[in-house]
Amino acid sequence: xxxxxxxxxxxxxxxxxxxxxxxxxxxxxxxxxxxxxxxxxxxxxxxxxxxxxxxxxxxxxxxxxxxxxxxxxxxxxxxxxxxxxxxxxxxxxxxxxxxxxxxxxxxxxxxxxxxxxxxxxxxxxxxxxxxxxxxxxxxxxxxxxxxxxxxxxxxxxxxxxxxxxxxxxxxxxxx
Length: 175
What we know:
This protein is about 70% helix and about 0% strand. The protein is an all-alpha fold.
């Protein structure tokens, strides 16, 4: 078997190396351009989000929000009677934590993390929780329990939680 020695720098390898060198030289310029694009997008998004608190929500959004929150509370109450919900309540009761947050459909007070977990499980137990139809997500079983738990654990959030609860009871029972 004869061993053939290839030249170290062939025309093909020279062209390949030249292509890599050219690409590497252009990369910092491309990265800088991409960075400027991202910065402008982030600036627009940040400005939009900062101004959101000064804009009223469209009436359709307000109605949808009410339906999603009410639907989530109904799913929590319903889920408390099912095995996953009973296990979530048992978890919250046994795990404990600070006695500052409410587990829906039970007399249990526990820590906010345990309450958010248990209430989220209650909301999703029977698969009747809300559905964001265009995205296929179930935001209520994550958002409402977290908001409720944080409302129980801080004074400012407690006002939000009370307002939310007032809205729910008014929606169910009338003013």
